[in-house]
């Protein structure tokens, strides 16, 4: 039965890869929201399959399931964090607080004095960061950057 | 008897394999490594009494066999050894290592922990592991920004008692650890490297008894935390360990040595929890943690030994997504429950006058509960739904228009951690009357948790009994096997408005039943049941439909296939528990009979590892009644 779970997971990951080529909805917020299932770490298996080989060094690759391929939007590793935490980040931004939001602030190197502004600005701009449920992690990243650029105290972190 | 026994043994093992297979949580899917030839050994030189030194053995992952007391390394990659007899001979490996690390200093980059140790012991003259000597090693080390080590223990999860066996891994915390960058820390995991082409049975067999290579993986904690707390819905306990900088460096050096190699992986002993202990032993040789686990390593037991070694500095609790949702439901006033359920439904209009009339705090609370519930539900159903995704986003949008900061309080840490519950090996002695014979019963249960054991630190309504054996001494002077439970897993997960789990039970073993026309034969029995359970305060009510197979040569037609119903009532108070249970079964094939059983059991816990219990049971079949009662004591250690 584990084998079936694993095969199932691989099929899920394969289908994600397939739609990734068309940059279709498979990598959007909605799909990330429902990835995995009880006891079936499909994404994790997929990530491991693609991400870890050879010397088993760092699996910190942003493009682990083929959805997020843009390295130009890396921002000191923020893309990977955003990519792996699409659902929790949106939840945190909606509430204006949370661990993922703190983590993103930390990766972007935002001073603790500016963190409250960072959270407030993202919270207020939820609609422009998440315009629809097909938004991809790259688009979320871009929208966050453009929201920050408009805020004087945050523009310096871009 | 022997035919029955072998048949039983076969199906117990099969069921056991199939049930526990998904619990091999250490599993990962990584291309198998290709073993390469060990380097040729030039000469063998004896040195002083090296095998006496535990740290050398730690660094080579040696372990003394329980069978013949011989030392052997558990590493199964030949390239890990510099002597071609190194797997069995630490002395030869020492000589070869000294010689080769001296002659070829660049080899020290591959074995920095060994080189450092030999240098400290005065056996290696020049140490060449600086960042100039070994750029790859130091580039790898720099990524950790290591300041402290935490042991991470994802606890058992809802409706999966086999996850009680758990998983542990290490997290390398970064400098100035605050809550904000914990998720960015890297983790060190041992994982079984499974082969997707294997059949289910082979998969389960190899996972449990060996055959899959175990390897180390390094990944960011946000990936692992997500895997456990969001996808598997397991709470996570994080134990910060009080290692010094030197010990942390040693641990990472040794991890580096192990990265390219593989171990045979065994679910019970050489599992992830055990392998983590070997790393801790290598970091601080005085710990001797692995020596404490000869036959099997249950992760919560390994945590107990860390606690005894005074290694734990600080503990942090990370509630899973399901725990967060439960907490929200428990906090949300009951008259808002229905509203949260309603607005979680896709397509429901959120702009109702009723909703808008509430305070913004109440609106936030309802929206947050509804979002978490929808996300949880979507994961359980395993299917992405476009309308559900759109609706989820609507809920978040609505929430974002309300003032920031969640109205929900921080989730309190459970008072008893998963490693602070009762111990898992149980011995009990009872005295009583069984079918008109005075009987003394001795019961041994190697693992793990019974519904009537103290529940603190264990998942609600979960039971795993493994290899429980009861032996009776009767007033006639006879000694006999009263019962043998190969495996009993019971999961009574309560249902409510939000959670709708199925409760289930699998029980395979040899049990005596008082049946008409026979003595009380030791029948091979397989019981599988499914149903519902509900919690009312500390009370739990459950009903399971059961299918049962019994086999014994003394039964008319040798076997009986039965269908039945089991209903029960459980009370769970701090220091006592009771269970009242009624079962009715009717045969559908084989030996034609019906069977009713009513039992009542009470346990009173003097301490978490010491209890008194009493049990009364009456059964009725084909017009005949059989009674038994026992009172006794239980120790858990």
Walk me through the structure.
The complex is a heterodimer of chains A (158) and B (637). Chain A has 158 residues and is mainly α. Chain A has ten helices and no strands. The longest helix of chain A is centred in the first third of the chain and has 20 residues, at 2-21. Chain A is globular and about 35 Å long. The model of chain A is unreliable at 1-25, 36-66 and 68-72 (pLDDT under 50). Chain B is an alpha+beta fold. Chain B contains 15 helices and 23 strands. In chain B, the strands form three sheets. In chain B, strands 11-12-14-15-16-17-18-19-20-21-22-23 form a twelve-stranded antiparallel barrel. In chain B, strands 1, 4, 5, 6, 7, 8, 9 and 10 form an eight-stranded mixed β-sheet that branches. Chain B has a two-stranded antiparallel sheet with strand order 2-3. In chain B, helix 1 packs across helix 6 (200-209) and helix 12 packs across helix 14. The longest helix of chain B has 22 residues, at 360-381. The two termini of chain B are 33 Å apart. At the A-B interface, helix 1, helix 2, helix 3, helix 4 and helix 5 of A face strand 1, helix 6, strand 7, helix 7 and helix 14 of B.
Distance between the termini of chain A: 48 Å
Helix-residue proportion of chain B: 25-40%
User: Structural class, from helix and strand content of chain A?
Assistant: mainly alpha
How would you name the oligomeric state of the polypeptide chains in this document? Answer: heterodimer
Largest sheet of chain B: 12 strands, antiparallel, barrel
Q: Roughly what fraction of the amino acids of chain B lie in strands?
A: 25-35%
The total of beta strands of chain B comes to 23
Q: Which spans of chain A have pLDDT < 50 for at least 5 consecutive residues?
A: 1-25, 36-66, 68-72
Major beta-sheet overview of chain A: none
Largest interface: A-B, 65 and 72 residues
Report the count of strand segments of chain A: 0
* Helix percent band of chain A: 55-70%
User: How much is the average pLDDT of chain B?
Assistant: 84
């Amino acid at each position: 039965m584990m084998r079936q779970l694993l095969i199932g997971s691989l099929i899920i990951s394969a289908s994600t890869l397939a739609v990734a080529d068309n940059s279709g909805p498979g990598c959007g917020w909605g799909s990330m929201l429902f990835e995995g299932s009880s006891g079936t770490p499909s994404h994790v298996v997929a990530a491991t399959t693609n991400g870890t080989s050879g010397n088993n060094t760092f699996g910190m690759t942003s493009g682990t399931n083929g959805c997020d391929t843009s390295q130009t939007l890396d921002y000191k590793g923020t893309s990977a964090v955003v990519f792996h935490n699409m659902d929790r980040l949106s939840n945190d931004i909606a509430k204006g607080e949370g661990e993922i939001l703190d983590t993103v602030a930390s990766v972007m190197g935002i001073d603790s004095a500016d963190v409250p502004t960072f959270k407030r600005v993202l919270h207020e701009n939820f609609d422009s960061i998440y315009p629809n449920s097909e938004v991809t992690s790259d688009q979320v990243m871009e929208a966050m950057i453009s929201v920050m650029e408009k805020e004087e105290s945050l523009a310096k972190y871009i | 008897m022997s035919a029955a026994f072998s048949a039983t043994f076969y199906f117990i093992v099969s069921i056991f394999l199939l049930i526990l297979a998904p619990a091999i949580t250490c599993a990962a899917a990584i291309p198998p490594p290709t073993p390469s030839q060990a380097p040729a050994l030039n000469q063998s030189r004896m040195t002083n009494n090296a095998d006496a030194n535990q740290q050398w053995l730690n660094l080579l992952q040696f372990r003394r066999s329980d069978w013949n007391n011989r030392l052997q390394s558990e590493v199964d990659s030949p390239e890990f050894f510099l002597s071609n007899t190194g797997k069995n001979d630490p002395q030869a490996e020492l000589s070869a290592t000294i010689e080769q690390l001296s002659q070829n200093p660049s080899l020290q980059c591959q074995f920095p922990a060994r080189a450092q140790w030999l240098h400290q012991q005065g056996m290696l003259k020049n140490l060449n592991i600086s960042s100039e000597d070994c750029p790859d090693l130091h580039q790898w080390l720099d990524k950790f920004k290591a300041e402290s080590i935490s042991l991470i223990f994802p606890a058992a999860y809802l409706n999966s008692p086999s996850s009680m066996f758990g998983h542990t891994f290490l997290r390398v915390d970064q400098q100035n650890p605050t809550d904000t960058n914990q998720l960015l820390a890297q983790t060190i995991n041992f994982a079984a490297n499974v082969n997707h082409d294997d059949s289910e049975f082979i998969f389960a067999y190899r996972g449990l008894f060996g055959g899959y290579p175990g390897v180390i993986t390094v990944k960011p904690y946000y990936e692992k935390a997500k895997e456990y707390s969001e996808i598997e819905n397991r709470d996570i306990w994080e134990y910060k360990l009080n290692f010094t900088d030197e010990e942390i460096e040693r641990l990472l050096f040794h991890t580096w040595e192990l990265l390219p190699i593989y171990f045979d992986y065994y679910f019970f002993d050489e599992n992830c929890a055990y392998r983590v202990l070997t790393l801790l032993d290598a970091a601080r040789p005085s710990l001797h943690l692995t020596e404490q686990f000869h036959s099997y390593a249950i992760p919560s037991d390994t945590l107990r030994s860390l606690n005894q070694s005074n290694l734990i500095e600080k503990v942090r609790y990370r509630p899973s997504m399901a725990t967060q949702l439960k907490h929200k439901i428990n906090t949300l006033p009951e008259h808002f429950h229905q509203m949260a359920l309603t607005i979680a439904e896709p397509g429901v209009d959120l702009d109702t006058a009723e909703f808008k009339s509430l305070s913004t705090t109440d609106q936030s609370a309802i929206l947050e509960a509804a979002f978490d519930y929808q996300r949880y539900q979507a994961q359980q159903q395993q299917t992405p739904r476009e309308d559900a995704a759109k609706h989820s986003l609507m809920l978040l949008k609505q929430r974002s228009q309300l003032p920031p900061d969640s109205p929900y309080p921080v989730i309190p840490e459970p008072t008893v951690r998963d490693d602070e519950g009762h111990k898992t090996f149980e011995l009990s002695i009872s005295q009583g009357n069984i079918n008109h014979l005075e009987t003394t019963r001795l019961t041994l249960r190697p693992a793990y948790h019974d519904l009537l054991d103290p529940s603190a630190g264990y998942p609600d309504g979960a039971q795993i009994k493994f290899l429980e054996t009861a032996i009776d001494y009767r007033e006639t002077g006879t000694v006999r096997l009263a019962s043998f439970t190969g495996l009993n897993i019971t999961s009574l997960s309560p249902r409510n408005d939000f959670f709708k789990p199925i409760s289930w039970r699998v029980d395979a073993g040899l049990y005596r039943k008082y049946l008409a026309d026979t003595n009380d034969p030791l029948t091979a029995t397989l019981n599988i049941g499914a149903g519902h359970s509900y919690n009312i305060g500390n009370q739990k009510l459950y009903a399971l439909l059961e299918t049962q197979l019994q086999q014994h040569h003394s039964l008319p037609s040798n076997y009986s296939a039965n269908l039945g119903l089991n209903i029960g009532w459980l009370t769970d108070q701090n220091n006592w528990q009771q269970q009242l249970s009624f079962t009715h079964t009717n045969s559908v094939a084989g030996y034609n009979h019906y069977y009713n059983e009513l039992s009542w059991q009470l346990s009173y816990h003097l301490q978490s590892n010491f209890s008194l219990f009493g049990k009364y049971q009456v059964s009725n079949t084909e017009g005949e009644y059989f009674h038994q009662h026992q009172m006794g004591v239980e120790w858990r250690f």
